[in-house]
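Two proteins, back to back. First:
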Amino acid sequence: MFQKNIDNIQCVDDAENISHLYQDIPPVVKKLAACCTQHGCFDHLGSIPIPTYEKVVQIINQARRILFPGYFSTTAINPANLEYCLGQETTELFENLASQIVLAIQHECFQARQSCTRCKGQGYRKAIDFIETLPQISEMLAADIQAALDGDPAAKGGDEVIFSYPGLRAISIYRMAHELHKLAVPVLPRIMTEYAHSVTGIDIHPGASIGRNFFIDHGTGVVIGETTIIGARVRIYQGVTLGALSLPTDAGKRYRNVKRHPTIEDDVIVYANTTILGGETVIGARSVIGGNIWMTDSVPADTKVMLKKPELLYFGNKGK
């Protein structure tokens, strides 16, 4: 009992010692608020509309339920209720996407101080235009899944690829975002692909152009830049970068509409940790680029590019 009383006294003392620390928070909050009034501070205050990150992620997940019926749904789907379930999901997707596109367009108008562009009508039109691309996206993803099955002996079936391959997840989100990018929807395509980047480690800009039967094996660390062009039946491995050459500090304005990233033609394989840079760099069809290579020059079709085998040194207990 005596020990229990001592413990209680100690707890009271600890609480009193901790409580005064809360007094240190208001001065910090005042400094943070003051930062928001300074030039160059990035914040979003006031009544200017802006999309919601969490709702964009919900849109991605809803689109995946439509594109892969029965895989990510909480309701069992069968041939009898397929059209009903798809109709319900697609209608909700249209409404949710339209509201976020409207906010994105309004935000851009407010930021640029543009006159009214009939944001709501424009947003709903772009949303239905996207909905109309879903069958095409579904066909493309079916080809991407087949590319994974054809190119990876470890793939046991389509179910495994759909559920567990980060490459397919990144590609599926990219294909959605790319269609929105083509519709000139602000902000949302980049939010989508950066979400994919955060969950897969694969960074594909929505502006990149990627053909059918695309397969990313393993995937971690892959980077595909905005103006990259990739043909059909291309396979790349983890750590591959399709990027731009070194750019000056004012590149944001000077190179915004310039092709900065390479072109990879049909049936090319690029192995792990290879970097290919430059807007004029073209990897010809059916070429094979080995691993750990740095390239800034084009190669013609049917070319193999390999590093010369390095000399390995072995050391044991008795020396070399």
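And the second protein:
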Amino acid sequence: MGHSFEIHERAGFRYVDEGPTSDVPPVVLLHGMLGDHSNWAETIKFLSEKQYRVIVPLIPVYNLPLRESSVSGLAAYVHRFVAAIGIRKMVLAGNSLGGHIALLYTIQHPDTVSALVLCGASGIYEVEMGTSMLRRKDRDELRRRAAFTFYDPAHATEALVDEVYEIVNDRNSAVRLIRMARAVQAESVAKRLGEIVPPTLLVWGLNDRITPPDVAEEFNRGIADSRLHFIDECGHAAMLEQPNQFNRHMLDFLHEIVGIPEMSLSG
């Protein structure tokens, strides 16, 4: 735990970029609304050591212009990012809001996505969190809400509570949080699942209380080429709470769909 990664900058985008370039598409990981690249730390380390190139954009959930503060606005941001760093084909993975962004992106740009991985993705329905978080700004309430994300409340660390507290007490961030929470409800992809073409892996916490298991079942029914794995004693963020199981499912899927990276001689 506690891995730190270099943050690269190009054309105004900030991102983590680990692992070698190879003959297989890179893996692009999208974090959720109250998350950041560190949510994926164990997966970044695991996959890059297996010779996959792993890229994690820092998604500006609270910094986009208000008119772009929507799921489609963030999908457009990801599209600009991918173009800026020269990725033509990728494996796209997302947790929570990141999964919703990945779904919308894949519907809009199917040719650029070799495979899709979803974990606790919004896009069908989720137990509403965003706006009600702002009704109370006391730390105990925020701690309780943060703990709701996990099976084991110990994952709701003081550092996480501090981050959430900062967001909901910053007016600009709070306005965007409310707007984004509404956009998640408004920009449902429930009726568009038939448009998801790439092979899709669903890895879901059996104890997810935000996007419960029936959401995963609905994704699995609606997406033609999908496979679903549940992880027990796991909430909304499997890659954080049960990283070993999550990473194993992801590696098996990558081996099946895009293959094992052959090291390029140029490195």
